[in-house]
User: Fold these one by one.
Assistant:
Number 1:
Amino acid sequence: MFQSKVQITRTGGGKSLVCKQKESVILMGLDSAGKSTLLARLLTGQVMETTPTIGFNVGTLDLDKKTSLTVWDVGGQKSMRPNWRYYLDNCKALVFVVDSSDRTRMPEAQKALKKILSDEKLQGIPLMVLANKKDLPTCMTIREISNQLDLPSYSERLWEIQACSALKGLGLQQAFMSVSKLIKKS
């Protein structure tokens, strides 16, 4: 499990303390979508071997001098999904990760996303969909995934979709900078 860290920055010759603003972001998606690999890559810059998450992993991602995100990676197995709602308190953004190379599980992902977004704690909370595994030749396009997940139907919600590769580290930093911007807009 990854550990969260507290970051305090001294400014003005040590006379005042400025605490970074930390926003809580929940990382959800079906099992094997690559959530833990993605979080580990973001936090360490390296690929780490992961096992199916039972419970959660958490870490702090520093985006700039003033902003950091506390990212909660919640297990995606079918037996864990009823517990997702317990992680939504103080959530400022939902990052939903899908395996863009697994067409057969898109209906299941669409159903899981729709169910979690119906929770009243997520009302008005922005959504970032990460189409992971874009490095694989069998991956779907952003448009295909958007349609499969029925994203256009969420017209009352701020949302974005971006392709990424947790394994290669492609698009991750940019995606979480966009998450930060979505939080500020909401």
Number 2:
Amino acid sequence: MTPQDMNARIVRYGELQPCKTAFIDAHTPGSNQKENFTIIGGGVSESPDQHVHITIPHGFNIGAAGQPPKCRNSMHNHRTAEVFFILSGRWRFFWGEKGDAGEVILEEGDIFNIPTNIFRGFENIGTDYGMIMAILGGDDAGGGVIWAPHVIEDAKDHGLILGENGKLYDSKKGESLPEGVNPMPLLTKEELAKVDCPTTSDVIGGYVRRYLDMVALANDGAVKVIGETGIIRDKPGFEVDFLTRANATEEKHAHDKPSVLMPVKGHWRVDWEGGSAILAPGDTMSVPENLAHSAVPSMTGEAAMYQVIATDDPAGQTWQG
């Protein structure tokens, strides 16, 4: 594959195109400074303004959220897996319908495989603009977002209405629901009762892994973070591996499904037959199936990278041991 072909499959951090109207809380004070990015796949944006960098189906989606300090993402649910790792900043993740059932603080490089069927939100509690990278299960990312009822009601007070078709309508722009389209119905008490509300210990122990712990594990070889044999045992339709200088190899390998390389620390050289490229933190590289390639740090110093590989498992969290 030529360097030109591969360059079309690399999204540089500095070239990411944000959308500030991606979701229903885009006008809600405290959430109105969010920037949403769809890097690979269709994403879950409710806005036609969302730019998609790479539209090639991978079996999963790659996205990101950028937020200034004290900006939060409102309580929502997904039907398939949602995995975040912290690229920059300090972040608080919380869950429960009102966001008061539990919380965890994550630092750069930490990863969180958020369980399905729980309301979750997050906020940047650092002192600078922060970025979290996201992996979402399935090519259609589970058919969109399920919002907690109060989020929909708050948004309406600030001019945004979500239609039952999953699209946003902004009264501040003179928009209204089209004829025949009703507002998105609020979840009933019976439906809310079916949403899980796990304890803090269950979530942190089962679904959170710390960057420094994974760095230590990498000294002993490959680290499968999420997978049937991973340190987070789950089968959400993709696997996640953790690479450092200690376990990276120049020996080329290939996968029978698309994969994605996402550096979190240091610069990485990716080689394949026909070319090479340097990736920096925040860059995202899509590697085609069956393309032999290798990835190793290109400079001295700290280096770490996440690798995402599609699997044949159904999109969504299926089990955890």
Number 3:
Amino acid sequence: MNFLKFTVRRLAEMAATLLGASFLIFGAMYLAPGSPASFLLSGRSASPDALRAVNEQYHLDDPFAVRYFRWLGQLLHGDFGRSITYRTDVSRLLADRLPSTLLLVTMALVLVVVIGLALGRIGAVRGGATDATILVTTTLAVGTPSFVAAVVLQGVFAVRLHWFPAGGTGEGFGQLLWHLTLPAVALSLYLIGMLARVTRSAMLDVLGQEHVTVALSRGVPKRHVISRHVFRNALGTVLTTGGLIVSTLLVCTVLVESAFGVGGIGQLLELSITTKDFPTVQAISLTMVGLFMAVNLVVDLVHPLVDPRISLGPGRSAA
């Protein structure tokens, strides 16, 4: 029952947050300089009648509140509007480009979780020169922005060594995976370093606790203690970074997709901002907010399964 109540409460909070985010996203675009009408006219000087016709067609002269509630009503019916730049439904643009972005983010997330947890665990358990090497490596990873990693990886492994394609998405699922390998590595590098350091720190804290010392002194195999007690207890701390990891992946995918020419929603967002394509920018931004909130909800629900000390009872959350 507590689980159900918590889920319902979190879903209600998500709905309220999405409503607030929709208002901020919609309003922020209209605070930016310039007008979509100037792009529609391709920068040409236009007569007042032509400009009025464009504004009427796209409802650009309507009051802000009217435009917002019209847009919100369309969203509730699954209609994201029509792209000003591409002259097609925004939902169709998202359907065409979202799979590539989701696959890229998923590949990067797998690399972050597998390599980050492994490096953090090895550094905490082995210590010594191994730990020092991992610390230096992860420090370099954390200090390397995604766009810098993209340029370096592209120059070395695509241009010089010809091991991977320099950009694009190829044809078919197999080619898509191959083309997204370098972008996924560039996108995950910073977060691998961050997660490794968080995991190492959390495990070292648990290793110093009394129950671990007692278990080791009683002859319990160290491997068993590390797996069943230290690593599992440390995962509670690691899980709290889940939202940060996903939000970073979603933000940085804009830069990485542009660098590698991946036709995902990140690249679409950059182009849409440049051309003042309001409906597309608003739809992509709201989609990213929704994905981020969904991941946070999953983390909150999984947290008690990893750490039984976390309660979903009244007045408490799994965060």
Number 4:
Amino acid sequence: MGIGNIFRAFQPKDKIFFDLFERIADTLIDMSKTFHEGLLEFDVNDESMLNQMSDYEHKMDDLTHEVFVQLGENFITPFDREDISQLAAGLDDIADYIYASAKYIYLYKTPENKVYSEFSLLIYKSCVELKKAIENLKDFKNPNEVKESCIKINSYENIADDVLSQATVKLFETNDAILIIKQKSILDYLEVVTDKAEDVANIMESIVIKYA
């Protein structure tokens, strides 16, 4: 019996961890979609999108906490406890930085920058692939699909790096020191979201290598 089959044989019957991770992934998709759509029709005087981001961030905190509660209550886990912990924390980081990005966009009240929505689209696409990867990670049935989603997430992060570089060059050409400080901070937060998504992809790829 292969190591993957051994782990499947001892998985909790209720699959509580995978259920939680799927709920977390669904929340990230909803959060990133709302964020992207909010930036496409951005109004600095309408804080409804920021409030929604705060609500999603709190929901993610609750779901992440539940993962750790289940770690304390379940002796048998679908894969290594440290990997579960890192995966949960990594997914929560994505939500934290989406919320931070939204917060500073509103706090700084800088002129609309279409680059923000370019980042938010990459973030949304990354979250969609994270959901696919988590679904395919369940029971280790589709390791190749997990790897494919991870490759796409890595490619989105590379695109985000290019978007940041190009946006930074244009920003410095304005010679507006205050604008540069504010928008560069926002751009950095947005780019970090894609870094965090790549971190999660790397964790899942590592899990597949270990157990699939």
